[in-house]
Each structure stands twice: as structure tokens, then as C-alpha cells.
Amino acid sequence: MVSAVEGQNKMPKKFTVFTLIELLVVIAIIAILAGMLLPALNESRAKARQTSCMSNLRQTGQALVAYANDYSGYFVPVSNEEAFALLYNEKFIENYNVFICASDIDIVKISDPANLTNANISYVFKGGLTDKDPVDSGISADKLDNHRSFGNVLFPDGHTQGFKGSNWSTGARGIAYLYE
After folding, report:
1. DSSP 78
2. pLDDT tens per residue across span 137-173
3. What count of other Cβ atoms lies within 10 Å of the Cβ of residue 99?
């Protein structure tokens, strides 16, 4: 005899599937969350570039202090690319990448850093200063278009400072003379 349980027709298992509307809602939610996350990631990336840039200027400041120690307290007597080339050629700075800001998209990379030009450097430098000049006199800084509404400045004592705002170059302790 067949038991009642064995004789029952087995019903096929019912599969649950997502409808097209449910899938579209999930995709829309993911897109909204990604849209909220990307600006925060971009801001973090920009801050990391600013920090890297500040580190580059700090290394340049250490090289300038070493140069001043060798030359009776005088910093490099020439400005801009000539100054950076002098620091590089005299081995005060051995890595050419110190002259490049990560945010500078217009930089022209070169294979021989011994021939630096203004197009290969992301910073400006004012020559002829000494380590006795006022501490608030900037000696090197970002080019104006390196960062959006931000700039780093190197001072004679070797410290660097970042300044915010669209007019940071004129408001940052009067360093506008660096861009003349």
C-alpha cells in the first residue's frame, strides 16, 4: 500500500525572481550612493596632492638651508628654473620629481633634468634672499594654477604653509612679488 505522503504529487519549487522594476530601483540606489561618495573621494585626492606638494617644497627648503650653510647664509642668487637647476646640478636635490607638483597637469616631463625650464617645474622661486631675511618673506611657492583655490609657500626658515582662498597668492603674507 502506498502511503498518503508518498502518493502526493510533488509540486515544483517556486523560484522567486526579481522584477525589472526592483532591479532598476536597486541600481538607482547604488548610483545615488556612488554619486554621494565620489565628491568626498575627489576631495581626499586633492588634499593628498596638496600635502605631497607641501612635502616637495619642504624638501626644497631643506636643500636651500644646506646651500645657505655652504654659501655664508645666502640662498641661491638666481630665480625660478635657474635656481632649481642649480640646486639639482650641485646635488642639493637629487630627485627631479621634487620640482613637480602632483596637481600640475601642464607639466612637461623631461628625460634630462640638467636642462630645466619653466615648463618642467611646478614652483616659482625668488633668488637673492638670505637666511637673515624676515621669516614671513616667501621664497618659493606653487605656481598659481597648481591647485584650485589653494597654494603652498616656502619661507626662509624652511617651513611651509598652505593658504586657502582664490586670492591666496596676494593674501598669503604678501608673496605676490614671487610672481613678478
Report:
1. S
2. 788 888 877 877 788 888 888 888 888 876 666 555 5
3. 24
Which set of grid coordinates corresponds to residue 161?
Answer: 604653509
Q: What is the pLDDT of residues 79-104, one digit of tens each?
A: 888 888 888 889 999 888 888 888 88
Grouping H, G, I as helix, E, B as strand and the rest as coil, residue 92 is coil
pTM of the entire predicted model: 0.72
Query: Does the structure show a pLDDT above 60 at 59?
Result: yes
For the chain, how far is it from start to end, CA to CA, in angstroms? 106
DSSP state of 16: P
Do 103 and 147 contact (CB within 8 A), yes or no? yes
CA dihedral 51, 55, 60, 63 (to 10 degrees): 170
List the chain domain ranges: 53-179
Task: Map 118-179 to HEC letters.
Answer: HHHCCEEECCCCECCCCCCCCCEEECCCCECCEEEEECCCCCEEEEECCCHHHHCCCCHHHH
